[in-house]
Amino acid sequence: MTIDRRGLLGLIGAGSVATPAFAAPAQGGAVSFQHGVASGDPDMYSAVFWTRVTPADASGGDIEITLEIASGGDFANIVRTSSGLRARASRDFTVKHDLDGQGLEPATEYFYRFKAGEVVSPVGRVKTLPQGSTADVVLGVASCQLYPGGLFNAYDAMAKEPRLDAVVHLGDYIYEYGAEPDDYGLSTGAALSRIPQPPHEILTLEDYRLRHAQYKSDPDLQAAHARAAFICVWDDHEVANDAWSMGAENHTEATEGAYSERKATALRAYYEWMPIREPKAGLSLDHINRSFEFGDLATLAMVETRLLARNKQLDYATDMPVVDGVPDLAAFNETLNAEDRDLLGEAQRDWLKGVLAASKAANKPWQVLGNQVVMARVMGPDVTKIASKEAINDMLAGLPEEVRAGVGQMIQLFKLGVPFGLDSWDGYPAGRERLYAAFKEAGVQPIVLAGDSHAYWVNELKDAAGERRAAEFGTSAISSPSPGDAVAPLPLGPLLSAKNDEVVFCDQTAKGYILLTLTPERVEAKLQSVSTIMAKPYAARTLSTWVVTRDADGITAPTKL
Fold first, then answer.
1. How far is residue 344 CA from its own chain's centroid?
2. 75 inside domain
3. Which residues of 153-189 are buried (b: 16+ CB within 10 A; e: fewer)?
């Protein structure tokens, strides 16, 4: 289909309503709702409800608002009213209200809105989680939305899905880069007039708040939030590129201050601006791991792989020893396979094993893992075996100057047989084996979801002994540049699937999201893509559909419909 409208910011697919889609314009000192509404972290009886109130005068103090939740879009039957909520200046005038397990019915769709005096917010929809017998669940899976990278057409398409119970967002909700001509995505951002605000790399609390505000000003993202509850986890760019527990590639303490302070600042803004529950008492802001129960059908466990326990990433430029001009692959592999390299840490892994084991004991057919980075073993393709030296040189000559040298170096490295990327689970083989052992001990073969890579993946995950441990569906980016774009016309996706036994399918250029449908018998993943992120209208289509079922040995390998 061809879609030429901006996202639906008010009631979506529920007929005519009297409530305005937008808040009334600020007049005579009135406030406004310029960043839409959102819900998140649903359970059987409640959810988190979020908005941001834009004050007429930011120095005027806190603003009192009311949340209304209704059974229908006309708000004729209001089932819950929460009065006396406050948009506080200390929280950047954001409001996040948790019903805390009370007031709503399971497996029921509700409509909600906020009021500040006579000013009414956009309308949102939320569906509570099911209880008991559950026939099916439909989830959107999204990741990686670079504001200057392109239009958020994929969110507009997602908002128009006929059914969407919740959205699982796997991180890179914002990016930290600035607006210099050579900053990430700025060539596209300049052409589309999507310039990051503030126009510099974000470091302070005000910086992070303003960047979140800019992202939530996008109508398509607002439409997706209004359509369904989001279940979110961060990746690295919510703080800084290639973050790990003690630092980040894109952070220099000598000029940018202590990393711990930047991380705390970024997470404070994240919790203010995202519809997510705060960590339980006694836990630090890093503890974003949590689980959700979808009746007797599935358990969704969201893990944290960035800030709690991740070791520093290895880098070929600095960690690959070179002896007499020859890379020392054996020495590099010894470092790569060190037993202490990990992403989850023991405490989180034990928590996850308990969640999975409990789901198995409850006879739920599916366990789903919301995980940020690709888990499959993916070795880089040896391009020299399929292309002549002349063809490779011609391809390199056609690349942008800023990526040409790096691509050339990787082509030579991949001849050695090294991982395609070191920021993913491939950079932490011992930690991955410990995770697979936890799967085995819990008696499950989960469905793993992955973001971060800006590419679509369908993977069959195996442990070091070659035993199937899980199936993986990786979603592409909403708008962030894909690796395949940088090396076109090289068919990167097919090369990776041909090279790697665990990679069933890979597309390194398409943009979009996954529509994941779970039933007792199978899991179906539709790779939903948009024709362009550079203009409207755009065409939305299903790139391909993949299914995982069960047999006597456990889950099957993903098969294409």
1. 17
2. yes
3. bbbbbbbbbeebbbbbbbbbbbbbbbbeeebbbbebb
Of 469, 474, 480, residue with least CA distance to 440: 469
Cite the beta strand spans of 311-414 per DSSP E: 322-323, 326-327, 366-370
In the Cβ-directed half-sphere of 544, how many Cα atoms lie within 13 Å? 18
Q: pTM of the full predicted structure? A: 0.94
Give me the helix-helix angle, 401-414 and 389-397, nearest 10°.
150
One-letter amino acid at 139 equals: L
Q: Which domain holds residue 95?
A: 1-128
What stretch of H or E contains 330? helix 329-336
Residues 6+ apart with CB under 8 A from 448: 368, 369, 371, 375, 459, 461, 470, 471, 472, 473
The pLDDT assigned to 388 comes to 79
CATH number at residue 103: 2.60.40.380
Between the CA of residue 275 and those of 40, 199, 270, 353, what are the distances in Å? 5, 26, 9, 26
Q: Is residue 313 part of a domain?
A: no
Six-digit token string for 319: 């960690």
In a domain, 325, yes or no: no
Whole-angstrom Cα distance, residue 115 to residue 32?
10
Q: Is the peptide bond before 537 cis (omega within 30 degrees of 0)?
A: yes
Total structural domains within the chain:
1
- The pLDDT value recorded for residue 29 is 58
- Residue 408 identity (one-letter amino acid): G
Q: b/e per residue, 60-71, with b = 16+ CB within 10 A?
A: eeebebebbbbb
| DSSP 8-state symbol, 443 | T
In 3-state terms, what secondary structure has residue 468?
strand
* Residues of the chain where predicted confidence (pLDDT) is lower than 70: 1-29, 402
Give residue 22's pLDDT.
Answer: 35
Instruction: Please count the other Cβ atoms lying within 10 Å of the Cβ belonging to residue 327.
Output: 17
Residue 64 within any structural domain of the chain = yes
Distance, CA of 227 to CA of 161 (rounded, Å): 9
C-alpha to C-alpha distance for 286 and 105, rounded to whole angstroms = 31
